[in-house]
Predict the 3D structure of the following.
Amino acid sequence: MKLLYIGHTYSIRANQAKIAQLARLPGVEVTLVTPDKWRGPLYDHTADPFEQHFTENVVHHRLPILLAGKEGAYFYRSQLFSIVASLQPDIVHVEQGAHAISYAQTLLALKRFSPHSKATFFTWWNLPYTLTGLRAKIEPFNLKHSACAVTGNEAARSILICRGFERPIRVIPQLGVDLADYDDQKPRVRDPSRFVVGYVGRVTEEKGVIDLVEAIGKSAERSRIILSVVGGGPALDLVKQRAHELNVQLRLHSAVRNEEVPEHLKTLDALVLPSRSTEAWVEQFGHILIEAMAAGVPVIGSSSGEIPNVIGSGGRIYPEGKVEALASLLDALATHEKIRAGLSKKGRERVEHEFTHARIAEKQYALYEWMLAYGKSVAELSASTEQRRMETVVQ
């Protein structure tokens, strides 16, 4: 199985472990294409080359692009067409949304140089949307030439169905974790006089960090709770101000790269993802939750978006925006060691069963095998599209 995998997510080294797991599966040969540079949080200007110590069975092309940092709008220069022509891939997986220009570009390359290939794409988008201009034309083209689709959450699956996509859709997280990264041979010595509650990520209003501060302010255990915030963003000053007003102990650290997260998680007694949905945003996944569960850290999440599906039985959920409910959960964790131990065990087991890089790679592999056996190629989908147009004209 010759697999062509395209996406800017793998421009950073920490995310390449999933690609390596795919390459280790039977008969898989992976060609990875990423932009040669990217702009965004935790991304260097220049893309990281694929780490060959993961596996040697991956060929990595870092190609020049236009509009770096703009996920749906960026596109590759002409080298992408040459790669498609020479590789003749069996399966092509593009990790961009349904109306992404880079996916349309890839499909055009397949139609011209490798029409037998079967294509799929990945999307996180979990809110209804309206398209205008070029993207309104691109999305129908992309959907018509896709053998199937992968979504990162259940809501995104529903959105695709509403957009008229009638082929198979599989809900598979984009990235998992490597449990070995979170194993520590030295057991942490807890200080019973302190209970460290963590938040890791962007500090914005929709991420609900203010709710977390308010909840700690209402907690019966407030005097021993320390709030550790790793990250930055436009709401950070408001967080500091409100923590001062409520006399909440606050420990701040600037944003860190993915591979540095495990060290920060080791300092926590619990992690909270207190996201709040808005008209323009709903939590798409919450990767920090599976990182914390992998580290054995009990997790609490709001009911926003995909969070309840990610946590499952591995943690606690509260209604988003309900500060009193969050405060009660924090008090329960702070005062009951058995609850913490039970959630730590359940969370780790959930990640092992559902969210490791290896498990996610296996799910994707099963989808690729289905595509090879039953999915339609770009040429077949193009022909069926033209046939429908002809039938419409005749009628």
Notes: The chain is about 40% helix and 15% strand.
